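Progress narrative, Year 2. Work on DSBA oxidoreductase from Planotetraspora thailandica advanced from sequence curation to structure prediction during this period.
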Amino acid sequence: MPHSVTVQIVADVICAHSYLGYTRFARAADRLRAEGVEVTVEFLPFELAPGAPTDGRPLLAVLEQTFGPDAVAGALAFAEHAAREGLRFEYGKAIATGTFEAHRLIADAALQDKAEPMAERLFRAHFTDGLHVGDPATLDQLAAEVGVTTGRVPPATVRARLGRVRRLDITGVPVFRIENLPPLTGSPTETTLLATLRQAAATKGGHRER
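Result:
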């Protein structure tokens, strides 16, 4: 079995399915790494709400105003589902925001081999801690926690990557692009992710657009 697998993860840090899907992926990747296989992760940005304001409005109020009360009920039900897998979603504290600068921070972290812990911290900051992940001061605080130096990736680079994702016809997240295998979408189970990672390690080859 080859000793490395490359994975592209398309996600947004304010997407509940992205948080659950990434958590499952991280657990599966840790299991594969324990088997001696290197798993390299690249995050590709996706904006759930392009151009959304960063003025700090409560998320549940925005959901209800935009999509109606059923959206709030759905979010709270999803929180109960995620809790069964050890994730704590505090929607009562969550803040609606644009995420362009959060994606830029993940790109900064990637240059320092810290993209995975940075993404996890941003997910947790938004969903559990009720922190404003569109606020520059908050992002600086989170970067310091993870040990990431900011400002290395220019905004134009992030915009180009967002454009590249659009050209891949990705309209929803998360998407897991594991080597040359068919992409996995939504929140696959940890078992499915691990099986796909193992398959990729065993049949590694092919090419992805980058």
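The helical segments are 16-34, 59-67, 69-83, 100-111, 115-127, 136-146, 155-167, 190-202. The first strand starts at residue 4 and ends at 11.
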